[in-house]
Design brief:
- The protein is of the alpha+beta class.
- It folds into two domains: 2-87, Alpha-Beta Plaits (2-Layer Sandwich); 89-124, no CATH class.
- The chain is built from three helices and six strands, in the order E-H-E-E-H-H-E-E-E.
- It has helices at residues 12-27, 56-62, 66-76; strands at residues 2-8, 32-39, 46-53, 86-87, 91-94, 97-100.
- The strands form two sheets. A four-stranded antiparallel β-sheet has the order 2-3-1-4. A two-stranded antiparallel sheet has the order 5-6.
- Strand 2 (32-39) and strand 3 form a beta hairpin.
């Protein structure tokens, strides 16, 4: 799973320090693969924090420790909310080799209402 949080930042130095602490905490959690903070090349006040996890379960567990809830959750709550933040990789590529990933979503994802889904018995 890929967490993508976009920010509009007015105090870059303080923001980078907070993101550094967030990345230290998150990448120390089991199942966290990597993280990065990037600044837009087009707009100096736009930033994006991306963190990759092995699974949804790894993401949820990574967000559970007290220090993460104390430092990371408040930072993430400041992210721009006009787009989704969690994505699942479907194609990955290394050295020119592209690999298709099995979706973690159920076949009926996005077609059922809350409380109707039984779980991902058959992935997409």
């Amino acid at each position: 799973m890929l967490l993508v949080c976009r920010f509009r930042v007015s105090s870059p130095d303080a923001f980078v320090a907070r993101c550094q602490r967030a990345l230290e905490l998150l990448t120390a959690q089991p199942g966290c693969v990597r993280g990065a903070l990037s600044r837009s090349a087009d707009s100096d006040d736009r930033w994006v924090l991306t963190v990759e996890f092995d699974s949804v379960v790894a993401y949820r567990r990574a967000m559970s420790p007290f220090e993460v809830r104390e430092h990371v959750v408040p930072l993430l709550s400041e992210a721009l909310t006009d787009e989704p933040a969690m994505y699942e990789p479907l194609l990955t590529a290394v050295d020119g080799e592209v690999e298709r990933q099995v979706s973690l979503l159920a076949e009926d994802a996005f077609t059922v209402r809350l409380g109707e889904a039984a779980g991902p018995a058959t992935p997409r």
